[in-house]
Q: What sequence folds into this?
């Protein structure tokens, strides 16, 4: 039965009581609100036209409430992501202080048939907002993350702070319990990783894709030791977005920001480690079949800008020797400040 039919079937007294109970403040249009108030204050019966106006007003109130609820959901999600990014940043810094090293065993963001990084390709299920292969084929291509390689100095800088191993997706990994139509092949097609995640005949999820097949993922059996010439993802966005000082040099030798996924195998979540976290945060603003972990950026060649009073100018000083934690970004390549913008309604989710 339609709302109009329901209203017409009510007794006069009941109908008047129903209309009197409606809160007109939810009607944004001033003229429509005044008209409704006149109808509500009327002592006699209601015409069909007036009933139609009431129905239209009720529909307007319902639509406004629906939009407000949707906005609330978006803000709650953005607020949760801001909190997760802050907690991850604090946890990584605390871990470094307590263990004299950064957490190890990150998700590499790469996949390879051999289960290592030699000749590996970017993980196919990264969101295009995070890594667009049509833009990020070379450094400076315009993607939030771009392809690069590790030099011997890069490996040494990571090793000096305890970062030595990563997880790699093994595209040949299999599980006898999986349907024959899907596999760990590094594609988003129905027969590849994307299809494996979407298929209801197994328990593989996007957030566990770097775990072994026995743990519902496609990860290689062991960890890969980082080495010179290994492919890596690096930050390709504006360096100031992630805290690199204005004026600092940003190239392959200065402020090179290497990106790793914060997966469940990281020692950041190992109960045996001091300062370890208990839960692995998930980023939920990507598609169901896209990698949905947060990303950590380590600066391999950090520098700072120092004011020189003699020359009244800033000069760049390199820290050198060690990598430092730089920032957390989400699965769409946004920083914490940008997520705060979504929370405040200043930018879209």
A:
């Amino acid at each position: 039965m339609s709302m109009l039919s329901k209203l017409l079937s009510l007794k006069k007294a009941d109908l008047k009581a129903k209309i009197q109970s409606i809160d007109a403040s939810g009607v944004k249009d001033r003229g429509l609100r005044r008209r409704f108030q006149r109808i509500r204050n009327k002592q006699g019966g209601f015409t069909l036209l007036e009933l139609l106006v009431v129905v239209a007003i009720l529909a307007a109130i319902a639509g406004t409430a629906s939009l407000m609820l949707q906005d609330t959901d978006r803000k709650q999600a953005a607020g949760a992501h801001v909190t997760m990014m802050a907690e991850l940043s604090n946890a990584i810094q605390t871990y470094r202080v307590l263990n004299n090293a950064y957490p190890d065993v990150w998700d590499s963001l790469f996949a390879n048939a051999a289960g290592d990084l030699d000749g590996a390709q970017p993980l196919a299920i990264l969101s295009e907002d995070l890594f667009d292969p049509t833009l990020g084929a070379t450094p400076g291509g315009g993607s939030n993350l771009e392809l690069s390689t590790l030099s011997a100095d890069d490996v040494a800088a990571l090793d000096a702070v305890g970062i030595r191993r990563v997880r790699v997706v093994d595209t040949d990994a299999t599980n006898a319990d999986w349907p024959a139509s899907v596999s760990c092949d590094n594609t988003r097609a129905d027969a590849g990783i994307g299809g494996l995640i979407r298929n209801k005949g197994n328990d593989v999820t996007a957030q566990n894709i770097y775990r072994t097949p026995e743990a519902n993922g496609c990860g290689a059996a062991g960890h890969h030791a980082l080495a010179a010439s290994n492919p890596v993802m690096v930050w390709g966005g504006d360096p100031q977005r992630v805290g690199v000082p204005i004026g600092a040099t940003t190239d392959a030798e200065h402020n090179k920001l290497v990106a790793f996924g914060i997966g469940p195998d990281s020692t950041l979540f190992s109960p045996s480690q001091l300062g370890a976290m208990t839960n692995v945060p998930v980023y939920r603003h990507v598609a169901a079949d896209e990698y949905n972990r947060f990303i950590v950026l380590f600066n391999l060649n950090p520098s700072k800008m120092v004011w020189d009073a003699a020359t009244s100018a800033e000069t760049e000083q390199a820290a050198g020797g060690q990598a430092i934690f730089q920032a957390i970004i989400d699965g769409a390549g946004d920083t914490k400040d940008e997520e705060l913008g979504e929370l405040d309604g200043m930018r879209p989710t």
User: Anything to note?
Assistant: Residues 68-343 form one domain. The chain has seven helices and eleven strands. The helical segments are 3-9, 12-21, 30-41, 48-99, 152-159, 193-198, 336-343.
